[in-house]
Amino acid sequence: MSDDTGLGSAAEKADSKSTGHLDDLLEEARTEEEEEESTKRFNVEIPEELHRHIKAQAGREGRSMKAVFLDAIEMYLSRSGA
Description:
Layout: H1 7-35, H2 48-61, H3 65-79
Helix pairs in contact: 2-3
């Protein structure tokens, strides 16, 4: 289909740039994942109030709940001499 306005080719160029940028971001994410240590899933039920506190703390720090939880576990283990 022909586009007399010339916008078709401009849109195609923009689309290819967007796709290229997305590909770069995906590749960067994959590289970061490969550099991280392997993980195991750990599911635990916690009281709702504790969950709210962790979530609020994570929000105040601009971090994920996972990051706050992992820091807490690491501090606990270092204090107990593990």
